[in-house]
Predict the structure.
Amino acid sequence: MPVWDVETVARALQAEDFGRVDRQVSLARFTSARVGGAADLLLTIRSGDHLGAAASWLWAREIPFRVLGGGSNVLIADAGIREVVVLNKAAEVQFQDRPSGPAVWAESGAGLGSVARRAVERGLAGMEWAATIPGTIGGAVVGNAGAFGGDVAGCLEAAEILQPALSAETWPAERLAYRYRGSWLKDHPGQAIVLSATFRLQPDDRRACRARLAAYLEQRQRTQASGPSWGSMFKNPPGDHAGRLIEAAGLKGVRRGGAQISPVHANFVINRGEATATDVWALIQLARREVTQKFGVQLELEIERLGEWIGPEGTGGSE
């Protein structure tokens, strides 16, 4: 990782006026599970133009950075992140009535669930499945977020992508090489960022849209864990479910420190109030080990581990 001086970069970013610059900020409050150490620098962005300009500026100077959206799919080390963290609050949303059919365009910091619910209130179908998913448009595009049989790949028309030393380009969904909870973007971290995305929608009866949304909300409340969490920790292996395997391994409800494998849905880890990233990582390793030993299945993480992991549970350095 390139060496960079925090104070020098902080002053330069303040001079560029991309957004607010803060030093040594705990990232826990910016994550859905309220877990994570501090960022050396936190740059808060509130427009897509500033997001693109800041990323290009950082890339050009080889200053390491991470874009953080809703923090729903990342486990940040207790020791924090030795990079500039760009907190993406660019959240403009536009609904479009086009000859080819309705669509919604949203900046990458907009909440995925919020966009989906706004579509429902306009009698526009196609994103009801997304209304229960935390996180942002950008994170959803990178990870091909999905639920209840729907996913980003099934309704994304195009995304505006920025890469180092290049102008922003519009990528059709096919170029993103989507697969189950994966994409080209997820395979190439740091090589591109999502500025915005456009999703196809279909006109429908508003009451029917609301009914589908209500059914998904009810199912989520009935079958999934409540409380601060990351959502699903592991991808479902082919032909099976990670939660079923973890439960069958006898791990439902198991705790490490302030973290617990949910007694409701075993693919969720819950922060019971004082969880650390180390607690959570211990449960992740336990689940992987027990499922592999008992069933011969290697669970693959759906979340991403970020920051500086030190000690026996970590890697001894930055991920």
